[in-house]
């Protein structure tokens, strides 16, 4: 089965994808990891397409998650799970991520974190550091 999970930041896409990956042994693809590179920045569109196409060709069944419409509109899943949620809940979850990232201040970011986790923590930490320098 091919499952695509879409939705906004903080909806729980990654959590559900990891659960399906572990439970049903489905290969998982995080579209954030396709589009972003460690350390910040984005891959070229052609490289993103290559990664996506290679994954689809190698796996007859999969779970894929993300909010990159330019990528997920190219796939043909058997099931689409749209994890829309109330904006208040999304804001709350993002706020919690901010405080979790703040705990990482003055700690090294593990290099083996998924790109998405690395990206959000790095951006959040940079914002925190900027705010501290301005005060």
Q: Would you write up a description of this structure?
A:
This protein has 135 residues and is of the alpha/beta class. It is globular and about 50 Å long. It has 2 domains: 2-82, Rossmann fold (3-Layer(aba) Sandwich), CATH 3.40.50; 87-134, no CATH class. Helix 5 crosses helix 6 (115-134). It is built from 6 helices and 4 strands.
Task: List the SSEs and their pairings.
Elements: E1 2-6, H1 13-24, E2 28-30, H2 31-35, H3 45-58, E3 62-66, H4 69-72, E4 79-82, H5 87-102, H6 115-134
Parallel strand pairs: 1-3, 1-4, 2-3
Give the helix proportion (percent range): 40-55%
- The CATH topology of the largest domain is given as Rossmann fold
Q: Strand content of the residues, in percent?
A: 5-15%
Topology, number of strands: 4
CATH hierarchy: architecture of the largest domain: 3-Layer(aba) Sandwich
Unreliable sequence segments: none
Order of helices and strands: EHEHHEHEHH
Question: Could you tell me the radius of gyration in angstroms?
Answer: 16 Å
CATH class of the largest domain: Alpha Beta
Shape: globular
Q: How do the strands line up in the largest sheet?
A: 2-3-1-4
């Amino acid at each position: 089965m091919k499952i695509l999970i879409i939705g906004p930041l903080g909806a729980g896409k990654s959590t559900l994808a990891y659960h399906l990956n572990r439970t049903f042994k489905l290969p998982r693809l995080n579209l954030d990891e396709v589009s972003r590179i460690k350390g910040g920045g984005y891959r070229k569109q052609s490289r993103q397409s290559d990664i996506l196409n290679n994954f689809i060709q190698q796996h007859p069944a999969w779970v894929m998650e993300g909010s990159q419409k330019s990528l997920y509109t190219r796939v043909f899943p058997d099931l689409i799970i749209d994890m829309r949620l109330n904006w208040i809940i999304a804001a709350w979850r993002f706020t919690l991520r901010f405080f979790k990232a703040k705990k990482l201040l003055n700690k090294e970011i593990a290099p083996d974190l998924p790109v998405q986790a690395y990206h959000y923590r790095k951006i959040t930490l940079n914002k925190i550091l900027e705010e501290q320098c301005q005060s």
